TrEMBL record:
A Gene Ontology BP annotation from the UniProt entry: mitochondrial respiratory chain complex I assembly
Keywords associated with the record: Disulfide bond, Electron transport, Membrane, Mitochondrion, Mitochondrion inner membrane, Respiratory chain, Transport
Chief localization: mitochondrion
Gene: Ndufs5
Described purpose of this protein according to its UniProt entry: Accessory subunit of the mitochondrial membrane respiratory chain NADH dehydrogenase (Complex I), that is believed not to be involved in catalysis. Complex I functions in the transfer of electrons from NADH to the respiratory chain. The immediate electron acceptor for the enzyme is believed to be ubiquinone.
Subcellular location: Mitochondrion inner membrane; Mitochondrion intermembrane space
Membrane disposition: Peripheral membrane protein
Organism whose genome encodes this protein: Spizaetus tyrannus
Pfam family, one: Ndufs5
InterPro entries according to UniProt: NADH_UbQ_OxRdtase_FeS-su5
Keyword Transport: yes
Subunit composition and interactions: Mammalian complex I is composed of 45 different subunits. This is a component of the iron-sulfur (IP) fragment of the enzyme.
Name of this chain's protein: NADH dehydrogenase [ubiquinone] iron-sulfur protein 5
C-alpha cells in the first residue's frame, strides 16, 4: 500500500477501470473473459511493466481477443468473401431459407 492512497482520497478507482472483468458481475457470475484476464494479471504480477509486456504477450493477446473478437471478425469476413466469390462464379447457390423465402405452411 502506498504512503498516500491517492485513489481512495480522490475517489477514483483505476484498478477497477483496468480490470473490467474482475468487477462485481450481475448474479455473482464471473465475466466472460475473466479467466483470460486473470491469467494475464497473474503472469505480470511482480515483473514490472517492461518485462511483463515482453513475457506476458501471449496472455495479453488472448485477453484482448476475448474482449474485442478481432481475429473472429477477420475470419468471418474472409468466409463471407469466399462465399460471395463462389456465388458469383456459380459454384454455390444459397438455400431458399437464406434468401428470405419461407417454407409453405399447411
Amino acid at each position: 500500500m502506498p504512503f498516500w492512497d491517492l485513489q481512495r482520497q480522490l475517489g477514483i478507482d483505476v484498478d477497477r477501470w483496468l480490470l473490467r472483468q474482475s468487477m462485481p458481475q450481475p448474479y455473482g457470475k464471473a465475466g466472460a473473459c475473466h479467466a483470460f484476464e486473470r491469467e494475464w494479471v497473474e503472469c505480470g504480477h511482480g515483473l514490472g511493466q517492461t518485462r511483463a509486456r515482453r513475457e506476458c504477450q501471449l496472455e495479453y493477446e488472448d485477453f484482448m481477443e476475448c474482449m474485442h473478437r478481432t481475429k473472429l471478425a477477420v475470419r468471418l469476413r474472409t468466409i463471407l468473401e469466399q462465399r460471395n466469390k463462389m456465388i458469383k462464379e456459380g459454384k454455390y447457390t444459397m438455400p431458399d431459407y437464406h434468401k428470405g423465402k419461407e417454407e409453405p405452411r399447411p
